[in-house]
Design goal:
The protein is mostly helical. The protein has one domain (9-54). It is 53% helix and 0% strand. The longest helix is centred in the middle third of the chain and has 12 residues, at 36-47. The relative contact order is 0.14.
């Protein structure tokens, strides 16, 4: 999703206060375990732009 937003890892790390190392390991799926606090920082930023990224029109379902 970061690439579709045309953001660098550095841009995303500044906005979410995560290190470059954490973001790059998430993208490569090289994390040993997923920490909830990491997702808690990334998902709110990406969720606000989800419709823009995937071109969704109209209403989303209740589970989104």
């Amino acid at each position: 999703m970061r690439k579709r937003l045309r953001m660098t890892i550095e841009d995303l790390s500044r906005k979410n206060r995560l290190s470059h190392y954490v973001i790059s390991r998430l993208e490569r799926d090289a994390t040993r375990k997923m920490c909830p606090w990491v997702l808690g920082r990334i998902l709110p930023f990406l969720a606000s732009r989800f419709k823009e990224l995937f071109g969704l029109d109209g209403e989303l379902d209740q589970y989104f």
